[in-house]
């Protein structure tokens, strides 16, 4: 029995060495402040700064509860990812873990669904950047597609120069977002404590009780909105991709992941609670940042321009992160055979430039859409991005479940950084994600059409698999030979 367990451990160790060879060539240049800000940037984006106004119109004060629920499950997902990272850090993140625990087909699906998420999100963010810049009247005469193209060029250069440049851009963009929220929280708390009226309304809890209560449009309206709030948390999984280029992942990543839950509590829940205590929930609108709504009614000068700069930095941060993550994910897939061979190429700066430029090519389509359909791009793309992020989070959880099983069987070593309450919290998270998909179907017409398109996406994935499976099998043969200690293999 002991001999069999030792054999399993040796094969598992060999498999991990093979998978770790996919990360050869990356620079380990991210330090604690970079990873901390990447974690913040993933949890705070345009979904909070711009999307909250429309969500308050639909859910009212119950939006606070929705953000708390989604925040808790986001924390579970991050802790599950953290356990996987501490077991084996990889720039391929959950795509590499899917390959380790479920094989190449799972890795293929996980990778291309994640690419779908970032491809669609990137087009949305390029559109958002162009719209934010056109807010300033000095730029109103310039076509929208020009700003989309300029934004894409700037962020592409930042990614191609080196990982340190990406990390620095992400650090400063995230810092801008954090400082803006801290400013709002301080101003809001002072106004609330002082009892100063806002736009003729006395602040306080009565703004909730006098406006239809906690669920002014009923429980179902609030529940349907959960699928929209989930996507406000999209990008939190970037911490996993950053692990492969982190100086000291064992010490830095647990602190970064643990800090996200209180940041969500303070920045998301705290700011939304302040919003509904400072103004009636129906005073906010979908086409205006709720933070601008409050601050402008307080008479703070230039607040609209400042907040527009904040949401602009948030959109640029998202494009930046999209290029970074897809470049690494596509390289990991290419090393396993699930993506074209050329996508595994690295530049002299240790950047997977082929994968990044492939994503840029998709984003250029977004620039074209900004030229031909400038008013419809956002709605067309955002719903398809949602399927990608749910798929990615699902793979993180099922990989975590398989890791726990591997630990019990002696195929993997114990890690100290664990998901609390697992496996119960793991299965609960999967149930939550399934419910989100079901709720999407009730969000007519956008969500309904998105769910209806799943068979078409599945068909495209099947066709793609038949095109790459020959190369995948060839690489798998090398992998199995490596398990048997064939030192003659060329792993480069």
Quick structural summary:
The protein has 492 residues and is mostly helical.
Characterization of this structure:
This protein is mainly alpha-helical. The chain has one domain (28-412, 421-480): Amino acid/polyamine transporter I (Up-down Bundle). It is built from 21 helices and no strands. The longest helix is centred in the middle third of the chain and has 34 residues, at 303-336. Mean pLDDT is 81; it is low at 1-11 and 486-492. Belongs to the amino acid-polyamine-organocation (APC) superfamily. Amino acid transporter (AAT) (TC 2.A.3.1) family. Residues 34-476 form the Amino acid permease/ SLC12A domain. It is found in: Cell inner membrane. It is a multi-pass membrane protein. Pfam families: AA_permease (PF00324).
Helix and strand composition category:
mainly alpha
Largest sheet: none
Rough outline: globular
Please state the CA-atom Rg, rounded to the nearest Å: 23 Å
User: Would you state the CATH class?
Assistant: Mainly Alpha
Domain Amino acid permease/ SLC12A: 34-476
Protein name: L-asparagine permease
GO cellular component, one term: plasma membrane
Main location: membrane
Which features would summarize this protein structure in a list?
AA-permease/SLC12A_dom; globular; 21 helices; mainly alpha; disordered C terminus; Amino acid/polyamine transporter I; single chain; 492 residues
Task: Please write out the topology.
Elements lengths: L1 H19 L11 H12 L2 H4 L2 H8 L3 H25 L5 H10 L1 H31 L9 H18 L1 H32 L11 H4 L9 H6 L1 H7 L5 H5 L6 H30 L11 H8 L5 H34 L16 H20 L4 H32 L15 H18 L4 H7 L1 H30 L9
Helix pairs in contact: 1-21, 2-9, 2-14, 5-14, 5-18, 5-19, 6-7, 6-16, 6-18, 7-8, 7-16, 7-17, 7-18, 8-9, 8-16, 8-17, 9-14, 9-16, 16-17, 18-19, 18-20, 19-20
